[in-house]
Specification:
The protein is α/β, with parallel strands linked by helices and 320 residues long. Among the domains are: 80 residues, membrane protein fhac (Ubiquitin-like (UB roll)); 138 residues, Rossmann fold (3-Layer(aba) Sandwich), CATH 3.40.50.11690. 33% of the residues lie in helices and 19% in strands. It is built from 10 helices and 12 strands. Strands 6-5-4-7-8-9-10-11-12 form a 9-stranded mixed beta sheet, with helices on one face. A 3-stranded mixed beta sheet has the order 1-3-2, with helices on one face. A hairpin with a 5-residue loop joins strand 5 and strand 6. Helix 5 runs antiparallel to helix 6. The longest helix has 24 residues. The N terminus and C terminus are likely disordered. Keywords: Cell cycle, Cell division, Cell inner membrane, Cell membrane, Membrane, Transmembrane, Transmembrane helix. It is found in: Cell inner membrane; Membrane. Belongs to the FtsQ/DivIB family. FtsQ subfamily. InterPro entries: Cell_div_FtsQ/DivIB_C, FtsQ, FtsQ_C_sf, POTRA, POTRA_FtsQ_type. It is a single-pass type II membrane protein.
Length: 320
């Protein structure tokens, strides 16, 4: 038998394209363990790399929440420590100060300070409340803070602060107006309608009504408003004594030797109207009356133990 050589091998079209059955057989055929058996080139072996294995932590949901809480707490505590150290504030203040200094060099600086409405308030008090100086940056002045400091001065009732660029500040003051002279523990001080004490000398205000006793200062405006409801009688009031911090005794015509009017604790205004009507009808205070007691609503008690007029009382005191 003759041996087969290369010229005996004929490759047809059917040999080049596998049949469908053969293709299905190859599809389900188990791949060879060795690539060389499958007719495939042997892959190159990749160089082994040394890798360090990182252990993985398996945390529960509660543990993850606790870990996050610790991280947030550490962040908050660290921020608080940094804040309380003052580093952040000092840095911010330095930056703002540098900015204001730059505006002052650009022409926005205090060249003029004017004040209106000042009478009893001293310039030292105004300067301390302003807290600024000539030549300083005008934009650095906090108008609200200056207003609050001005209104904290006892003699100032209200204040307004105006910035007039590029270099003027104007302060407008409304000072407290004295309505009475309060005598307490032998000391005299002016008070306004809110009962606020006004420091300073009382010279020039001696003709104001004198209120005496504990609590009289704070209730002075309330009393004067009530008395003003009868203007003719109110004009004769020279002093009022607060009794037990509950009610008033009013002195007419003279603070010491005048007619003492005892007003009730309740419905004092009604009693005051009643006295004014009696005065218009019968001129009860022009008689030798030393005291009028109005504390009982349905009656008036008169005590006649004084001379007919203050001049005669003065002669009596001098032994005449």
């Amino acid at each position: 038998m003759r041996r087969m050589n290369d010229s005996d091998i004929v490759i047809t079209a059917d040999d080049r394209i596998a049949s469908s059955a053969h293709a299905v057989h190859r599809k389900h055929k188990r791949p060879a363990a060795d690539p060389r058996e499958a007719g495939e080139p042997r892959p190159r072996k990749a160089k082994a790399k040394m890798r360090r294995k990182i252990p993985r932590l398996h945390l529960s949901a509660l543990q993850k929440l606790a870990t996050g809480g610790v991280a947030v707490t550490a962040l908050v505590v660290g921020s608080a420590v940094l804040w309380h150290s003052g580093v952040v504030q000092r840095t911010a203040q330095a930056t703002v100060a540098a900015l204001f200094d730059a505006t002052a060099r650009a022409g926005f600086r205090i060249e003029e300070i004017t004040v209106s409405g000042r009478g009893r308030t001293t310039m030292d008090e105004v300067a301390a409340a302003l807290g600024a100086r000539h030549g300083g940056p005008i934009l650095a002045v906090d108008l609200n803070e200056v207003k609050d400091r001005l209104e904290a001065i006892p003699s100032v009732r209200a204040a307004a602060v105006e910035r007039r660029l590029p270099g003027s500040l104007h302060l407008a003051l409304v000072e407290r107006s004295p309505v009475a002279l309060w005598q307490n523990n032998g000391v005299h001080v002016l008070v306004d309608r809110d009962g606020v004490q006004i420091p300073g000398p009382i010279a020039g205000y001696e003709d104001l009504p004198l209120v005496v006793g504990d609590g009289a200062g704070i209730r002075a405006d309330e009393l004067l408003t009530m008395l003003a409801s009868e203007p003719e009688l109110a004009a004769r009031v020279k002093a009022a004594v607060r009794v037990g911090n509950r009610r008033w005794n009013v002195m007419l015509d003279d603070a010491i030797h005048g007619v003492e009017v005892r007003l009730p604790e309740d419905q004092a205004e009604d009693a005051w109207h009643r006295l004014a009507q009696m005065e218009r009808d019968k001129s009860v205070t022009n008689r030798a009356v030393a005291m009028i007691d109005l504390r009982t609503p349905d009656r008036m008690v008169l005590k006649t133990e004084r001379p007919a007029n203050p001049a005669e009382a003065k002669r009596k005191d001098n032994g005449a």
